[in-house]
Amino acid sequence: MDKIRISAVSYTNTKPFLYGLQHSDINKLIDLSLDMPSDCAQKLIDDKADIGLIPVAATLNLPHWEIISAYCIGAEGPVNSVFIFSNCDIKDVKRLQLDPESRSSNNLARVLLKNFWKIQPELIIEAPDYTQSTDSETAFVQIGDRTFGKTEQYKYVYDLSGEWKKFTGLPFVFAAWIANKPIPADFIKEFDSALRHGLAHRHELLKTLPQRADFDLEDYLMHKLDFDLTEDKKKALYLFLDYIKAL
What we know:
- The protein has eight helices and eleven strands.
- The protein is α/β, with parallel strands linked by helices.
- The longest helix has 16 residues, at 185-200.
- The radius of gyration is 18 Å and the shape is globular.
């Protein structure tokens, strides 16, 4: 049987899932590649992967997609790795640099700008350096491990899943396990079992990760991130897609 091709993000937030996949028998049945979020999505769009842990906004570019797991990358409130960093209050921002590594976070920023903060800054897609801003009226979106320890560097910091919770009262789903074709039910059962195994061994995983003085990895993996794809998270996922369509 051909191996099922899986594309997953290589950030710290996915390491529990990767641990489970790599320490379970399902490892023999899959061809796993580690990619940036936007590349995960593109592989699914181009049919270079069968399953991807993809930014949920990317589902809008798939002719067929289905959620195949009870797990996701989500948060019940602030997640501490998806931000707008700014030198001024969000209401005074004139320009927003988008992060080329994530479609969902850029779209979440756009949804919040329009519907929650009700402002229309210029959106900059290809900033010379999108990882910082020295301009007083230019903010920027940044996600993932590159944000660790950065919250003290800017006067104004907006955790986007925390802002979404203020706006909607719902949790947020950044990425879900999405397939672009039907996947056998017995594989899905074994796949979820492997993910569950990884989540159950987060304390062991933490011992293998480089420790940082400026970021609490244990709090991040055990508390800030919420991996269960609950009914409220599904509701939030579809609501987010509706907001994107209306942009």
